Amino acid sequence: MHEKLFWNSDMPATTLPANHAPNVAPPLATPGQLGFFYRIGLTARRIFPAIADLASNEVYVLASAIAFNALLALYPFLLLVLLTCREVLHWNTGVETTLFLLKTTYLPVAEDFIVRNLRVVLEEHTNRGVAVFSIVALIFTSAGIFTPLELALNRAWRVKQPRSGWKSQLLAMGLVPVCGVCFLLIVALTAGMQWLATQLLGNAGVPRLASFMTLVGAKVLSLPITIGMLFGLYMILPSERPAARRVLPMAVWVGLLWEAAHYVFVACLPLIDFRKTYGPFYVTVSLVMWAFVSSLLLLLGANLAALDVASRPGAPPSPPAAR
């Protein structure tokens, strides 16, 4: 069948097939869709499912495993970094800068207590014995950190074929020296910033301002490296590599959120008062809680990236979260 389309009575008739679909431009976005509140609502629709998924039993178990093994790995990792600076690199400035970063940037509680004990271990114990202990401890605890993280990222990206056990173990052990190199890079940049601030401000009679500028510089310089480490974990740990353009924005957001969460956590510690509840174990409990919060933030970024892919046209429907 054919139907006639007439532009006007004077023009000749033009015939088109009945099933022909005219080329119609897609409708433009409405002002409401381009508005601020529409974008906020769109973001909320993606964030809330990702946050709700963190309450699942599976995520809770994986995050707890990551936090526990992170606590076990913290002390030997720091000892190995300090020994590398002093015995391998013969870099005493690196030792002092590492302790400075621990006191001012990374440790949320009992900074003086932990740093003082690290100094005692370095001065009173044999270097070879401490190094062997640190390496052996990191071999066992690295798998406990990165393997649950790999499982959690595979779950977020809905990977169907995970790695075998020995491949996951080798990957976890390989990531330990990579993290150590990244941390040493942060130490080197902070040491350079500290030297520059001392030359410019310390000699001018304002040492406090020099220390403040060193702290600010350490924050500014370490944040891109932290984001790069998060991006690397998001890309390397899943058994199936995700698209980098989806992962990078989430790594940036998680890095910024982790930095903000550190200040919030430190501010809330006096209100929670773990010392009153747990007595002498409050330091351990505080460190485990911070590691648990950090692991949840890491998994939140993976969930957001996965939801961003799933929300696009043609993406398969997301299965319900395991409970």
Can you count the helices?
10
Sheet having the most strands: 2 strands, antiparallel
Distance between the termini: 57 Å
- Order the strands across the largest sheet as they lie in space: 1-2
What fraction of the residues are assigned to beta strands by DSSP?
under 5%
Structural write-up:
- The protein has one domain.
- Helix 5 crosses helix 6, helix 6 packs antiparallel against helix 7 and helix 7 packs across helix 8.
- Strands 1-2 form a two-stranded antiparallel sheet.
- The chain has 323 residues and is an all-alpha fold.
- It is globular, with a radius of gyration of 27 Å.
- The chain is built from ten helices and two strands.
- Helix content is 75%, strand content 2%.
Task: Give a brief description.
The protein has 323 residues and is mainly α. The chain contains ten helices and two strands; from the N terminus they run ββαααααααααα. Mean pLDDT is 77; it is low at 1-9, 11-16, 18-29 and 311-323.
Question: How are the elements arranged and paired?
Answer:
Blueprint: E1 2-5, E2 14-17, H1 36-53, H2 57-88, H3 92-106, H4 111-124, H5 127-157, H6 165-202, H7 207-236, H8 244-272, H9 274-278, H10 282-310
Antiparallel strand pairs: 1-2
List keywords for this structure.
disordered N terminus; membrane; single chain; 10 helices; Putative membrane protein; disordered C terminus; 323 residues; two-stranded antiparallel ribbon; transmembrane; Virul_fac_BrkB; mainly alpha
